[in-house]
From TrEMBL:
Identification of the protein by name: Integral membrane protein
Transmembrane feature ranges: 32-52, 58-79, 91-114, 186-208, 229-250, 262-295, 307-329, 367-390, 411-429, 449-467
Species of provenance: Catenulispora subtropica
Domain of life: Bacteria
Keyword Membrane: yes
Keyword terms of this UniProt record: Membrane, Transmembrane, Transmembrane helix
Amino acid sequence: MSEIAVKRLDQDAGDAPDGEAAATGPTLVHRAITLIAASGVFWAVFQIFPFQSAVPATGVYVALGAVAALGVAVTSMAAKDVRTLNRANHILVATAAFGIICYAVGIIVSGISYGTDEEIFVQWSAHLLGQGKNPYGADLTPAFHHYAMSSQFYTKLLDGTYTHGLDYPAVPVLLSWAGNSVLHDYHTVAFVCSGALVAALLVAYKLLPRDYRGVATIICVGYPILMDHARGGIVGIIMLPFLMVAVAGWERIGRGGRLDRRAWIAAVCFGFALSVQQLSWMLAPFFVTAIFLVRWPELGAKAALRVTALFSVISVATMLVINSPFIIWNPGSWLAGVTEPLRQKAIAEGEGLVDIPISLHFGTGDLGMYSLGGAAVYAGFFVIFVLYFDKFRPAWVVAPAMALVFQGRPLIEYFAIPALVWAVVLLTADKDQEDSPRPWPLLAARRRLWISGAALLPATGLWVLGLTSPQPLSLKIVKVATNGPLNQIDQITVQVKNKTGDAINPHFMMTNGYSTSFWNEVSGPEKVPAHGSAEFVISTPGMGSSPGVGGDFTLAAVSDVPASVSYAPKTAIARYSTSFLDDLGRKYAAGDTAVVDVQLRDRHSRPSKTKGVQVMLNQVDFSASGITGSNLSINGGPAGNPAIALTDSEGVAHFLVKKGNDNPTGLVHLQAWIRQSGSIPTYGYSAFLTQQWP
């Protein structure tokens, strides 16, 4: 790592002899960042705590990690010299690294299911590679069943299907293929990503200035999102250590008109980053342009272009060499795979401006405008970056993210993962680098402003077109069917009206920010005719895709022609739910009478003082031999039968329970629910109350 170290903001103080460093008091920034980093480690300790049963060794980390974090916190407040605080930071980063490892091991060994198709596709691709098969171009659908991933996490397409191919460059597959020899195809990608996060933590710690080293711990461990993404197999994590080495001290690249050893290492590492995920591709034009514009005043345009081109050639060549086995194997399949995200018609969801129509449920008739708008924003910000390079020089690493905010699928990982890279770029900036002159000195300020506005005009227009394009379908829910005690909706009847002049093939799902799997069409036409109507009966593909009876839900219909999403009005089925006032299971003697009170609650779980609502209480015996009836008498009724009571003015229904005959009873589970007339005769099922009878 010494070969890739860069000059730090405080290099003189940091490299002082031990005696001199000991006499230098820590800065307030150094103390504060160390303290915040120590506080962040408590999140890892808290998250690892539940895994002590599955992996007992994690309990040791919980104990020692808490002690270490507290010790570093005390040191950050009380240290009298820099050397002591530096040592505390060394302990803290080691604690954070072991925390990432323990979290990954604990959560995976305890039996977590696969959570993203990104993880299982890369892992299945590594599995195929181990069998001598080319993963690019292969149908990866068997991965869904092999790894038993819930269908609600599939990436859904507008045509009603799901993604089923490898669409990442080669590094994640190659690393997972190597890891399979040790991990035997069990959460290999998650372990690889967690290892990459540890590497990213240590690399960032080495690269960052002394006073700011705690930033690495804050971002990698103090923020839960990176650890969660790593154990979920989000391969962008693998890109981090390579990308940080590439961009650290980037303003020195090409200084003097040549690439030194540090610059060659940066170029090769950037090539590795390009071979991990396409997010680095978006950074590439900004990165190389920034290098050119920094070197231009020093070397002149021709020499600056030459050194920038050499850096680019090394990076691209590195990427091609890494991917060469698959390129040679089948160049068409490889190219189609790695460019698939650019062509993929995925449904709109994520954390960006597309959330406005999603959250307000007014839909859009042309999702393509969001994709085009994102590309236009990217181009517009690139123009602005070049025109105002004297002001925006350090921001080149963040600017591409603005384009992702505007496009139709702005997943949070696109912004959260590069955050550590942003910090490295900011904090390893060369303080001796002269301020960048205006790259276009003859361009008047007003003219630059006009050009910048014109550059963003297409993006604004495209986004407004997407936002104002009306949804093509009108949806109205006319009937629902529930699954009773599971408190979920199983089937929906929906009337669909087509407001356009073309027939549309809708595909239905529930949405609440993120969308469920597509619901099955039990009945209904293949397409809704132009300016016509149709009725569809749809059923849930699984419990994970079924909305609860007690909450709001929104039905959405997507289509690929036109690329659109339409929403039904937000729907609420149930007004109340039930719960037991005393939910502690108790033991009773044969002649006892148990008083069971059931509280009516509103949709926000607050007690509802509604009188006269019918509440039913039933009994069941769960045993190893199956589900059977019990023999309790409720409100004086026959043994084994349910009973009905009306709520009083406090919204409470009262039941008296005792043995109905002399037969043995054992453990009995009581459950309450609301009974009414209408299309949903029962709903609002309570949790079970367990009682022990002789």
